[in-house]
Amino acid sequence: MPxxxxxxxxxxxxxxxxxxxxxxxxxxxxxxxxxxxxxxxPDAFWTxxxxxxxxxxxxxxxxxxxxxxxxxxxxxFADGVLNVSYNCIDRHLDQRxxxxxxxxxxxxxxxxxxxxxxxxxxxxxRMANELKKIxxxxxxxxxxxxxxxxxxxxxxxxxxxxxxxxxxVFGGFSPDSLAGRxxxxxxxxxxxxxxxxxxxxxxxxxxxxxxAIEIAGGVKAVLCVRHxxxxxxxxxxxDFWHHELTLQVDANxxxxxxxxxxxxxxxxxxxxxxxxxxxxxxxxxxxxxAAMTFDTVFEVERGEVFWCTxxxxxxTGHxxxxxxxxxxxxxxxxxxxxxxxxxxxxxxxxxxKHKVNVLYTAPTxxxxxxxxxxxxxxAHDLSSLRLLGSVGEPINPEAWAWYHRVxxxxxxxxxxxxxxxxxxxxxxxxxxxAHDLKPGAASKPMYGIEPALVDGEGHFIEGEGExxxxxxxxxxxxxxxRTVYGDHKRFAxxxxxxxxxxxxxxxxxxxxxxxxWWITGRVDDVxxxxxxxxxxxxxxxxxxxxxxxxxxxxxGYPHDIKGQGVYCYVTLNAGVxxxxxxxxELKAHVRKEIGxxxxxxxxxxxxxxxxxxxxxxxxxILRKIAENQLDxxxxxxxxxxxxxxDDLVANRPQG
Length: 655
Ligand code: WT7
Hints:
Helix content is 30%, strand content 22%. With 655 residues, it is an alpha/beta fold. Strand 26 (526-529) and strand 27 (532-535) form a beta hairpin. The protein starts with 27 loop residues before the first helix and ends in a 5-residue tail after the last helix. The structure holds 5'-O-[(S)-butoxy(hydroxy)phosphoryl]adenosine. The site of 5'-O-[(S)-butoxy(hydroxy)phosphoryl]adenosine has 23 residues, from helix 11, strand 20, strand 24 and strand 25. Residues 90-476 form the AMP-dependent synthetase/ligase domain. This is Acetyl-coenzyme A synthetase.
């Protein structure tokens, strides 16, 4: 008898498990009816959905959208007035004031705490008053560069309380990257901590902030949380300790009434060209989308514990760690550490310790943990888990099967949620209990979402049976980004011009005969490395900044753990030797310029890069060489110097 555990791939269809029936809130029929209504009677649908939030003024206008790139404008609930922190905290106080809002689990397994909604109210009000005290006013951009500690969430919510716009920068980004983001949105305020800790290693957050401010300029005040107690530099008059200011401010701060279309936050993300762009989300539409999709996809009940393992530096950490759970008044778990510290069973230990009911994580983490063997999972009691989620990249069948069988014991559905920083929340996902699962498929559109496929010329690919093409969305939804901060033209060009009047996702997709959607990955020059989005252009520009580099081209290649690895072709200046030391130096250089997530996996020194006669680098060929698909290089006859390719193939680093 073959042992099930040795099956390398997942079955094609996994029916909704009977064990899930007690939790299921949406049947297939209900999903179909609600979806139909959301598309055919959107105004009626959204008028009902609005009741999920507490409005100071309930909107009467639903949407006002023009996707023509020349007149691009997107508004939802435009005459509505509300406050995000009120919706995430105050309105729960009567009924749920003593419920736990957030559980914090430290990097050090000995450290954890629980904060109730009442305590959260107190912390957020105080921090909001601290922000006022250091000069922050409505509409100001506040940059957050924080470890995963409760104060990070307090800071986000404190901004929303007073109508300031937060821009969270991942704590793993370099001072240069941080500086670029501070500058781009002209942020005069930064909230940080002395240090972060991950895997028992300190992260010099305040030191990085100091360097970033030197580079960017323009920062008036820094609010610093004391976390590790490390010695740090201090600029009198500019830097303020949170623990000192908090004693000087009132524990009550009235929530600022905000228009639904007032900016809520900026989050920088990489595109196929240029610098990272500031994705802008607004107040009403984003919060409703976060609240509705969280509730619909994860079905978390009062008393349950939801754990999203994403960092607040990414959109998942905004929508499903912070705003979605808190808007719904349930418990969110905030984890400071990494999956492998102190041992590679940390996720399972945390699930057991805090009796996690829903776990939402990324395929890259699963692939890394799968390697460590089943025993590490089996050593812990995971019986509290009822639902598992995946996000960030397509999940491969092996990882899906392992997640389902070893972590979920075959009784937990897996929701594979496809979405983007730009979309604010889940766009294509199965609903647990409603949809039979197809491992690897993002499955079915969320309410209000109308996906479609187009070919290279922008013609719709339609019909029954299996279809493949570029994924576009045909109509607006409340959680959609509203602009690229400070560059509305770039917003129009990036998303609405490739296929005029349609939102272009940058992803390729397949719709199978059962109308399940499968995401096949980016079709542009964006890499997905361990679920982190990186633009090849950013890495290239970091490389050519090095004095010895003449030219660079970066592509992705399949990587067992990371999904995609970073493969760099580098042409050195004449007279510079391509040594192992130079290779190490360039890797360290990119790491320093952008951050550890962007560290190149492979550097291939190339005397020249393959170019067309008009001088355009032929990335298609570079990708094939990186993927080791040497017999699929295709037509090289249009190259200026075909011999360049032979040289690259002959000198491809082994491994
Ligand atoms: C890109 C967006 C969504 C929050 C985390 C990433 C890829 C994301 C899936 C999925 C296949 C996925 C896409 C997308 N992606 N989720 N479930 N299946 N691909 O947000 O950094 O904005 O990246 O991640 O390629 O375009 P992001």
